[in-house]
Task: structure prediction
Amino acid sequence: MKKQLLELLVCPHCLPLEYPLTADSIREQDGDIETGTLKCRNCAALFPIVEGVALLDPFATESQRATNKYETDELVSSYLWSHYGDLLDDAQASHAYATWAAQIRPQGGVALDAGGAVGRFTFAMGGCCDFAIGIDTSLAFIRAARQLMRERFLVVALKDEGLLRQEATIRLPDTWPSERVEFVVANALALPFRKNSIGLFSSLNLVDKVPSPLRHLQEMNRVTRDCDAQFLLSDPFSWSTEAAPVKAWLGGKTEGEFAGKGLANVATLLAEGRDELAPAWRVAAPGHVWWKIRTHSNHYELIRSCFVHASR
Ligand SMILES: C[S@@+](CC[C@H](N)C(=O)[O-])C[C@H]1O[C@@H](n2cnc3c(N)ncnc32)[C@H](O)[C@@H]1O
Result:
């Protein structure tokens, strides 16, 4: 983990109180912490840094990791294709990330890509702000993103059919600077960052995957600046009780506070700045993009991800 992140970090266990983390027994090279421990001065919780990866998800358990589909080799390979298929000159590649990137304006400060998976959008944000951080609960995804950041290339075994695999090499363009990005394991519902520390926040295809979508928005709001800030949310709104109970959904139901469609409800919440989302956001006209995930050579999932861009 790049040492410069230390000044942004707070203990995710102690939220909403913010206590800094101090680094103990660190082994570093050229400003990169390879191993060490981050310790909360208040609750004494310890967060290890292992092979350069800071593990800052306060809810993570070994058994969760063992059953998380996003930790599997198949999903890592699927997402590497989804994020970097255009760099492989694959005719089937989706151009969703370029469309999302076109929604944001360049601006100073730090960007945060929540649930950023293997890092494509984090690299895109690194190109339009001073520094971008990708967070995800999947250690396997964060390892793949960091490998790309450090080595600038990664060999991926794409599923062809059954047990057959095709190797492909992803090479990052020179215009995507590794020194302006970092990736850590963290949870979008308890972000280990100070309030008002983020200028640009993205949440792509995440809000329908978390157990508390409103808590995710509130955490976004806590860490983003009160002014000179942007927020991009995109989602297919595939509400499911596997991720969250119906009462926690922000749309997709006929009754209650969040009856109606998810995109419209999120836009209203932001524009009104209620439910701990103040100061209110200016919300631009919504749009959508076709996002694609590859399972194997003959099987792709095509997903309409509906986005809203907000600023304040
Ligand atoms: C559907 S994928 C979207 C990935 C990426 N944002 C994109 O659009 O390509 C959802 C991602 O969110 C991550 N995730 C799920 N729950 C999370 C949470 N509570 N905090 C952070 N990441 C989470 C998953 O590991 C996965 O990488």
About this structure: The chain has two domains: 1-56, 59-311. The chain has a mean pLDDT of 96. Residues 139-151 form the longest helix (13 residues).
